[in-house]
Each structure stands twice: as C-alpha cells, then as structure tokens.
Amino acid sequence: MDLNTLRSTVTVLAFACFIGIFLWAWSGRNRASFDEAGRLPFADDTRPAPDAGNVPNLRNSNHV
Predict the structure, then answer these.
(1) Mind giving me the DSSP string for the chain?
(2) CA distance 11 to 62
(3) Residue 44: its pLDDT value, please?
(4) Rounded CA gap, 62 and 64, in Å?
(5) How far apart are CA 63 and CA 60, in angstroms?
(6) How many other C-beta atoms lie within 10 A of the C-beta of residue 39?
(7) Angstrom distance (rounded) from CA 14 to CA 20
C-alpha cells in the first residue's frame, strides 16, 4: 500500500463519516430533541443563581 492509496482511503472514510453525521442530524426521529435544544436559550429561567446572595458589594467600599 503506497501513500496515495492511504490518502484516498482516509478521504473516502472521512467523507462517509460526514455523510453519516449529516443523515443523523437531519433524521426525523431526532427532530424533537434538536428543537428542544434550540429553544433552550429562550427558556424562562426564574430561579436565582446559586451564589447570588454571597456576592460582595464593591460599590460601597470606603477606599479612596
């Protein structure tokens, strides 16, 4: 096996992986989970941050 055959084989395998990932991403059975993940940044999260009460107030310091 020479170097060009190895390069061609790797190129074909990488293209096959690309096509496989493309088909997986566009398959109908994954649509619901991808739609839910797409709406996640717009979700209304009303819970406070875990350490919101422990942040020191640096604006009222008496340093000059």
Answers:
(1) --HHHHHHHHHHHHHHHHHHHHHHHT-GGGHHHHHHHHHGGG----SPPTTGGG----TT----
(2) 65
(3) 78
(4) 6
(5) 9
(6) 9
(7) 10
| Torsion (CA) 49, 54, 60, 62 in degrees, nearest 10 | -150
Q: Which two tokens stand for residue 56?
A: 């020191």
Q: Report the alpha-carbon distance of residue 35 to residue 37 in Å, rounded.
A: 5
Q: From residue 30, give the alpha-carbon distance in Å to each of 8, 37, 44, 52.
A: 32, 11, 24, 36
Chain centre to alpha carbon of residue 56: 32
The 10s digit of each residue's pLDDT in 16-57 is: 999 999 999 888 888 888 899 999 988 877 766 666 566 566
